[in-house]
Write a structure and sequence with these properties.
Layout lengths: L3 H30 L9 E8 L1 H7 L2 H7 L3 E8 L5 H12 L4 H4 L7 H6 L5 E4 L15 H12 L4 E5 L9 H5 L5 H19 L2 E3 L1 H10 L31 E8 L6 E10 L1 H16 L15 H15 L12
Parallel strand pairs: 1-2, 1-3, 3-4, 4-5
Antiparallel strand pairs: 6-7
Length: 329
């Protein structure tokens, strides 16, 4: 039998040994018991050098990013119908102390100032849509603009923003026998592909997605309102039964002097459906995450249509699908 005093001593020794071993036990268990740390929010900063097509493409990107727990910081160096040549003309004017309206065309800022405004991760460039399908229109302006961006924002990746073709009912196609939506799309693919290859740049496939939707059985081509005639329409009448448009269509503008309203047919810029599709494309391209289960809900897009548009964007960006193009001269 062990005397009581000895039992007490042995118990104390055992207890002290346990205390001495506990730090090592905790150290061994630490990998499984680490407290979760707060991860920094993934943030991407994008400057778009372009025109209203850049604005259309980025309209809802921040909504998708926020819904996924990310942050999208953007700015747009936009000129009305701005081309690569126009942007470079502005940069040249700024460097030579030229007229302010040419040198500082972005809300009284120059391109150099826009490039320095943030530590941009990506700077996108695009051609004017009327020239986008003409490969010869790109140079020497694209090369000079790329060199200028690399000089003043060396940390940024330059990415080609592939714009899209006009809708089938655009006036340009009724005026020319050698051009339609398919041929415009084929031409812009050829032009942007050549630009990207020459300078080793990636492309955001906005134009591919718009064409893919047009050819997808679940979406299809634009169906106009058969009962709407713009030539006899009286303000504020607009089409009510049009379907499957990714472009704006008709709207009214008011003459500030006369008060008269004029109807405008816009079948080149994106509407709410187009904004949604384009944002899906940009989100997947920029953040590398599938948009299929993104919880963002647009109040302007039907929920069933949103599912279709997300699928098309995912197919184009992640699955690398590109619609077939017709041959162009």
């Amino acid at each position: 039998m062990i005397p009581t005093q000895q039992k007490i001593v042995y118990s104390c020794v055992f207890f002290i040994a346990i205390l001495l071993l506990m730090p090592f036990v905790r150290a061994e268990m630490a990998p499984e018991q680490k407290r979760p740390t707060t991860q920094p929010i993934k943030t991407i900063r994008v400057l778009a050098v372009g025109n209203s097509f850049s604005r259309d493409a980025m309209m809802n990107v921040s909504d998708f990013a926020e819904a996924a727990g990310y942050k999208f910081i953007s700015a747009a160096a936009i000129m009305l119908s701005g081309s690569l040549e126009d942007h470079m003309r502005g940069a040249d004017a700024f460097e030579s102390d030229g007229p302010a309206h040419i040198a500082r065309p972005y809300g009284r800022k120059s391109l150099k100032e826009m490039l320095a405004a943030e530590p941009w991760d990506i700077v996108t460039i695009q051609q004017n849509s009327l020239k986008s399908f003409v490969s010869d229109s790109l140079e020497p302006h694209a090369g000079r603009l790329i060199e200028y961006i690399r000089r003043h924002a060396p940390q940024a990746e330059i990415v080609v923003h592939q714009t899209w073709a006009y809708r089938d009912d655009h006036q340009l196609f009724t005026e020319r026998d050698d051009l339609d939506t398919d041929r415009m799309y084929a031409g812009l693919c050829s032009a942007y592909d050549g630009l990207a290859k020459t300078y080793g740049l990636r492309q955001i496939p906005s134009g591919d997605a718009m064409q893919a939707a047009r050819l997808d059985p679940a979406w299809g081509r634009f169906i106009p309102d058969p009962d709407f005639d713009p030539h006899t329409a009286v303000h504020p009448a607009l089409p009510k039964a049009e379907k499957r448009s990714l472009h704006r269509n008709f709207y009214w503008i008011k003459n500030s002097k006369t008060g008269e309203h004029t109807i405008v047919h816009d079948s080149l810029h994106a509407n709410s459906n187009g904004h949604y599709l384009l944002a899906c494309v940009w989100f997947e391209f920029l953040f590398g995450q599938s948009v299929l289960d993104n919880p963002y809900v647009s109040p302007y897009v039907d929920s069933a249509d949103a599912v279709i548009l997300r699928r098309i964007a995912h197919k184009v960006v992640t699955e690398k699908y590109r619609p077939k193009t017709v041959s162009v001269p």
